[in-house]
Specification:
The protein has helices at about 5-10, 55-60, 95-100, 145-165, 165-170, 175, 190-200, 225-235, 245-260, 270-280, and strands at about 15-20, 35-40, 60, 65, 70-75, 80, 90-95, 125, 130-135, 170-175. By secondary structure, it is of the alpha/beta class. The protein folds into two domains: about 1-200, 3-Layer(aba) Sandwich (Lysozyme-like), CATH 3.40.80; about 225-294, no CATH class. A six-stranded mixed β-sheet has the order 1-6-5-9-2-10. A two-stranded antiparallel ribbon has the order 3-4. Strand 3 and strand 4 form a beta hairpin.
């Protein structure tokens, strides 16, 4: 079935680029037996173009070898088919999620958030079990384009039909797999929309909240709240809740102490700290500030 992915998606009218040798590309030689689909977002800056995470998804990063997902969906709806083998996208998650998925137990909602993973229980590796879809979005309130939504829903519906998966039970959000993650941040009825596409070929594009305002160029400090705080938290690798609390301050100070040359460890994210975070980021989340701000 996997070898038919490219043909099936193109036959569904989707704009698909299949990388040469995708069928045999994998992040490891371990077995791969997918039983469902997992959705993610890339956390790329909303102004960074059509497919800024292309090379990241294909090749990985310093701490995690690629490919990082089987599919990457661009903001304009183009789809990149990266790999037909096991990829590093799911990580470890809730063991009972796999049990429920294999038993085709329908979750209590369609992906809006009622089913988000609780605090850790029994863990299980997930890369073997899921086809990963990375959606280009910043994860900070960016409005998902109609083209991206349509391409993702149609592609997932096509794979469900090809593999005989029930979209109401075999499609999982990354945040439903592990509480370490918040992706995808768009909380719409993903499973129902994919099921509509499977059953009738049609679905209604869902309403989305108004996008958050552009990130402000300002010094961030303890007590601040907003998407600009969440962005630096993402780069620091901590929970991106958008609240600059004591733990965020501690991590900023640690980061400042590790910079070369060392920055003043004041826990404030001003122009110099922000510039160093831009250099550190593994994916395009933060934009570089104009030189007149520095």
């Amino acid at each position: 079935m996997i070898n038919q992915w490219a043909h099936a998606l193109k036959s569904a009218g989707l704009n698909v680029e299949a990388l040469d040798g995708w069928q045999n590309r994998a992040a490891s030689s371990y077995s791969y037996d997918p039983v469902g689909i997992m959705l993610h977002h890339t956390a790329s800056n909303r102004n960074s173009g059509i497919m800024p995470c292309r090379e990241l998804v294909i090749s990985g990063r310093r701490d995690l070898s690629g490919p990082l997902s089987q599919f990457l969906v661009a903001r304009d709806g183009a789809i990149l088919l990266v790999a037909g083998g096991r990829c590093h996208h799911a990580g470890r998650g809730m063991a009972n999620r796999i049990e429920q998925l294999l038993a085709d137990v329908e979750p209590p909602d369609y992906g809006q958030g009622l089913y988000d993973a609780p605090k850790p229980g029994a863990y299980r590796a997930g890369n073997k079990h899921f086809v990963g879809f990375e959606l280009e979005a910043d994860g900070l309130g960016e409005r998902y384009s109609d083209q991206l939504l349509e391409a993702t829903i149609k592609a997932c519906a096509t794979l469900c039909l090809l593999h005989g998966w029930n979209p109401l039970t075999r499609v999982l959000m990354h945040r439903e797999w592990t509480n370490r993650k918040i992706d995808p941040d768009l909380r719409i009825p993903w499973r129902r929309l994919i099921a509509d596409a499977v059953n009738s070929g049609h679905f209604e594009t869902p309403e989305q909240a108004e996008p958050l305002p552009p990130l402000k160029r300002r010094t961030l400090k303890r007590g601040d709240i907003g998407p600009d705080v969440a962005a630096i938290q993402k780069v620091l690798g901590i929970t991106a809740d958008g609240h600059f609390g004591p733990m965020t301050e501690v991590h900023v100070k640690r980061f400042q102490g590790k910079c070369r040359p060392r920055l003043t460890q004041d826990g404030l994210c001003g122009p110099l700290t922000h510039a160093k975070l831009v250099e550190k980021q593994k994916r395009p989340i933060l934009e570089r500030w104009p030189t007149d701000v520095l």
